[in-house]
Specification:
This protein has six helices and four strands; from the N terminus they run E-E-H-E-H-H-E-H-H-H. It has about 160 residues and is α/β, with parallel strands linked by helices. It has a four-stranded parallel beta sheet with strand order 1-2-3-4, covered by helices on one side.
């Protein structure tokens, strides 16, 4: 890959064999992104604890993939793109964060849009709101106004949080 001028991107597991000089890490564990940045490699933070958007929101939607309430994404301190453990000079190696949807686990009757859109909004708000001076909607009441807007443009998003 290096000889062809290509860049390598891999999940945390690529750390196990030692990283190629231009490899970047997609960190689903969190610690992998921190290790990569400390060693001068780029990383995208995508912790499974907060960024797996195919997990169910409501008890009635629960399935094997997992269960994750929207407020868990919105309140997740780990969602800050720059982990607190990193020194200021290591911050430049964190490229951002990513939400994931593993379609093999989404039930056809629910759909990817239904599961992912509310979480996409939460992730964007957490990442784009400044650490100081900004406010985030972390309660169900704060998110209720978004669902009529989504519905008005034809987005089928889970409204489970409106019932909590």
């Amino acid at each position: 890959m290096n000889s062809k001028g290509r860049k390598i991107v891999g999940w945390d597991e690529i750390l196990e064999g030692g990283l190629a000089p231009n490899a970047a890490v997609m960190s689903w564990r969190g610690a992998g992104g921190i290790a990569a940045a400390r060693n001068g490699h780029y990383a995208v933070m995508s912790p499974g604890s907060h960024c797996y958007f195919d997990h169910s929101e409501a008890i009635r939607e629960r399935r094997a993939a997992g269960f994750r309430r929207l407020h868990h994404v919105a309140e997740g301190i780990q969602l800050r793109a720059i982990p607190a453990e990193l020194k200021p000079e290591e911050h430049r190696y964190i490229l951002g964060a990513q939400g994931n949807v593993w379609t093999g686990t989404s039930l056809p009757r629910i759909g990817v849009e239904y599961m992912a859109v509310p979480r996409m909004l939460a992730l964007a708000e957490v990442l784009w709101t400044p650490k100081s001076g900004g406010t985030r909607r972390t309660s169900s009441a704060g998110w209720k106004p978004e669902f009529p807007r989504l519905g008005a443009v034809g987005v089928n998003a889970s409204r489970s949080i409106c019932k909590s």
